[in-house]
């Protein structure tokens, strides 16, 4: 089961606390994944198509609980994708038009509503239920162990902007992306996704995301430390190789025996310990020398070698 399917399965088991919240959730489910057909004289029919069993179960459960409507369910299996497709149909019937008005999908005398049904969303439970229904119908959430994000795909700019405002009422920051004539409410932040999951009622999956984030943070921290250590080692190795070359030139041009004692001690230590960093090399001396002191010895040796090579006409 995909991570999205796990979240939707948990959401399908959330019981809306009020009749208004149930109505709001069903409204969002039908609005996002339903198709409304019109045949004149107020005759409507509705088709709801989904590949998620949890969505189909929730639509049928709420429809039968709230309304006295005839519904049919057809389950088809896609041979190509090896998935089930669920088709719920509400055929033409006398009560359907009035029920669609109650759901905020139809506006009397004006036809199909364009924005979110504000009259249904006066309470927080109703707003939570509406967003829960919208996510169940058109939502996707990536596995938190990878490139994590959450999105809800919808049609209609007014509806999309209204949904962004509802999400924002939970203290969640979402942005709106246009995609081939449709819209996606998009969340990237772990904190925002966790907050939205909890608001919708997916507390268990929110905890799964928190654990995944903690593990990912530890893994990233370890990787950063390892990469930094490897970079430091590479720099130290390169510096040591350059210092060994400098010592060879000093021996050839000046002679190590003629060097000042501090520089001679540095040359002997570097040849004995080519793998050490400059700071660690200083600790091998007697008495020990600081990293700064060792660096100044390197600079002094470079000056002596450069002067000797200049005198030799090189």
UniProtKB/TrEMBL annotation:
Gene Ontology molecular function terms on file: DNA binding
Pfam family, one: HTH_WhiA
Domain of life: Bacteria
Keywords: Cell cycle, Cell division, DNA-binding
Xref: Gene3D superfamilies: Homing endonucleases
Domain (DOD-type homing endonuclease): residue spans on this chain: 129-172
Family to which the UniProt record says this protein belongs: Belongs to the WhiA family.
Function noted in UniProt: Involved in cell division and chromosome segregation.
Protein name: Probable cell division protein WhiA
Organism: Olsenella profusa
Gene name as annotated: whiA
